[in-house]
Write a structure and sequence with these properties.
- This protein is an alpha+beta fold.
- It folds into 2 domains: 1-36; 38-131, TATA-Binding Protein (2-Layer Sandwich).
- The chain contains 5 helices and 6 strands.
- The protein has helices spanning 2-19, 21-25, 27-36, 53-66, 118-131, and strands at 39-41, 44-49, 69-77, 80-87, 93-102, 105-112.
- A 6-stranded antiparallel beta sheet has the order 1-2-6-5-4-3.
- The protein is globular.
- Residues 13-36 have low confidence and may be disordered.
């Protein structure tokens, strides 16, 4: 038990030295996000959907409409898709960038609000995943 505590202390000190105080504060949130396959950084929720680009676009658009987000622009090409909208409740901008990683894998970056709203992005992400079923 004592060796486990010493090991955890050493890892914590190393993290503090290498990454600054923010690494320790975000360690709990990062562990939870990693378990769900998502990462929230600098106002963007990053995740990967187990589908191709076109299916991810359709699910994202449906989730935005169900979330009372008015879609204002959709741009799709073989290398990337961008869906932009405005949340009707408060006018917050919403942007989803989808990047194909493989035929059945699409990376998504979701941003809600100018500075980022993590909770709203996570709700939208859950709705997109539900739409993939």
């Amino acid at each position: 038990m004592k060796s486990v505590k010493i090991c955890l202390l050493a890892i914590s000190c190393l993290a503090l030295v290498l990454y600054g105080c923010g690494a320790l504060i975000g360690a709990g949130a990062g562990a939870a996000a990693g378990a769900a396959g998502t990462k929230y950084a600098q106002g963007n929720l990053e995740t990967t959907y187990p589908v191709g680009l076109q299916q991810a676009v359709k699910a994202s658009q449906n989730a935005m409409q169900q979330s009372q987000i008015q879609i204002t622009d959709t741009r799709v090409d073989p290398t990337k898709a961008e869906i932009e909208g405005t949340r009707t409740s408060d006018g917050a901008p919403v942007k989803i960038i989808l990047t194909p990683m493989a035929p059945n894998s699409t990376k998504a970056d979701i941003r809600v609000g100018k500075l980022g709203d993590e909770n709203a992005a996570r709700v939208l992400n859950r709705m997109i995943f539900e739409g993939l079923k």
